[in-house]
Amino acid sequence: MLGTAQILSYITALGLAAAIPGPGMTALVARSVSGGAITGFIMLFGLILGDLIYLSIAVFGLAVIAHTYASLFTLINWAASLYLCWLAWQFWTYQPQAVEIGQKVTKQELASAWLSGLTITLGNPKTIAFYLAILPLIITLDNVSLQIWGMMLVPLTIFVLLSIGAIFILAALRIRHFLTSAEAQRILFRSAGMIMLLAAVGMVVKTL
Length: 208
Hints:
It holds the Pfam family LysE. This is Lysine transporter LysE. It is found in: Cell membrane. By secondary structure, the protein is mainly alpha-helical. The protein has one domain (4-207). 81% of the residues lie in helices and 0% in strands. It has helices at residues 4-19, 23-35, 37-59, 62-68, 70-92, 107-122, 125-138, 146-176, 182-207.
């Protein structure tokens, strides 16, 4: 079992990593502003799933495989960076529109939000660095069993990310009332686009 010190260290480190603005939380705010709470939380579920995937990779030692098959890992990085570039273009070219509170969203929009959340996390250098480089410094992964992973680390990860993400979503919903001007929306979405582009460039640079 994990000790209290390790648990608190993990919660603190993960909370800080999630709270620092990056591609994931920036996109979450932008989606919540344009689509509302439901869209925001659906995207958050995608973000969390991406984190759980990297957590599993770190815990079960698949990181070793990633380093062994460097070419495959590079290909995945390039694919993720291209997707981030596409998202950056979508945010940059977003056409400001009136913010309608309580507007219904389609299943297609929800599916798109979930997939965006998942792929953004999988292509987020900050997430990769946390689980494959920082996590082993916090927790002795060799001692993590399947039971500890399923009954402690997974619930803790979901709890922390859901809590931090909910704060960002609620803040975005408060902002919606002030984003009635086209210029304010344009600044928000273009800022999100720039962060996406910088993340994509960072991923490409790491593979060179």
